[in-house]
Amino acid sequence: MQRGEKLYEGKAKILYATEDPQLVIQFFKDDATAFNAQKRGTITDKGVCNNTISARLFELLETEGVPTHFVRQLSEREMLVKRLEIIPLEVTIRNIVAGGMAKMLGLEEGIVLSQPVFEWHYKSDALADPLINEDHIAALKLASEAELEEIRRLSQRVNAALRVYFSKRQIDLVDFKLEFGRHQGQILLGDEISPDTCRFWEQGTRRKLDKDRFRRDLGDVEAAYQEIVRRVVA
Ligand code: TMP
After folding, report:
1. Ligand 1 centroid distance, CA of 199 (Å)
2. Ligand 1 mean position, distance from CA 90 (Å)
3. Which residue, by CA, sits nearest to atom 15 of ligand 1?
4. Could you tell me if 228 and 220 are in contact, meaning their C-beta atoms sit under 8 angstroms apart?
5. Distance (Å, rounded) from C-alpha 186 to C-alpha 183?
6. pLDDT per residue of the chain (234 residues) written in tens, 0 to 9
7. Angle between helices 46-63 and 145-167 (to 10 degrees)
8. Is residue 24 within 8 Å of 18, Cβ to Cβ?
9. 210 exposed, middle or buried (CB, 10 Å; 0-12, 13-18, 19+)?
10. What is the distance in A from the centroid of ligand 1 to the CA of 215?
11. Ligand 1 binding residues, C-beta < 6 A
């Protein structure tokens, strides 16, 4: 598959057309941003790590009954994916309090939740992806009720599968963000699943193995991404 014209460049990835109108190439960059791109940097080989990790996790999720946009890995930094009409929603699922939830509710990070917390966010860089509810989504016609139900069902399945998968690798899945899109009448999981979009804490030590090392200037950022690759590939 050859890269065609550039269709879109985001903060961490670039999408290229291919000769097949239903397929696009997702290229993973080393660029990192945080706090709505107010903080910018690069994480050496992040693109290679996130491509490898996402490919492995999409394969896993397909076997768990979650349809994804993933087709195959093409190179170190490229994956072939199905073209999606992206639904402008970001789904967050939280198992342990951290980040935005800690801030919003004045809670200490690390509280283990009695059940997973599901959140809808409106996908808008300009607004910093605000929290919204299903009434907002319905009123603004962002997605149908049937689509929301399907997204919720798939997201819960992702959480269940990834929690088990990472727990076997001595990692707690604290929280994560998912994006979905429409492809030939079906809802597919899109984007990426990586230390950019998940919080991973090493069991026992609670060492952070994700982008919080970059957001919070904790150091050893590259090593954290490499460690997730090592455990995911193992
Ligand atoms: P939050 O606690 O900042 O709301 O983040 C929840 C999860 O979503 C966390 O695993 C990181 C991920 N995330 C993204 O993938 N993109 C974003 O823009 C933000 C803010 C968080």
Report:
1. 8
2. 9
3. 197
4. no
5. 5
6. 889 999 999 999 999 999 999 999 999 999 999 998 899 999 999 999 999 999 999 999 999 999 999 999 999 999 999 999 999 999 999 999 999 999 999 999 999 999 999 999 999 999 999 999 999 999 999 999 999 999 999 999 999 999 999 999 999 999 999 999 999 999 999 999 999 999 999 999 999 999 999 999 999 999 999 999 999 998
7. 110
8. yes
9. buried
10. 11
11. 92, 98-101, 129, 175-177, 197-199
139 C-alpha to center of ligand 1: Å?
Answer: 25
How many CA within 13 A on the CB side of residue 13?
25
Domains belonging to the chain, first-starting first, are 6-82 (3.30.200.20), 85-220 (3.30.470.20)
Q: What is the pTM of this model?
A: 0.97
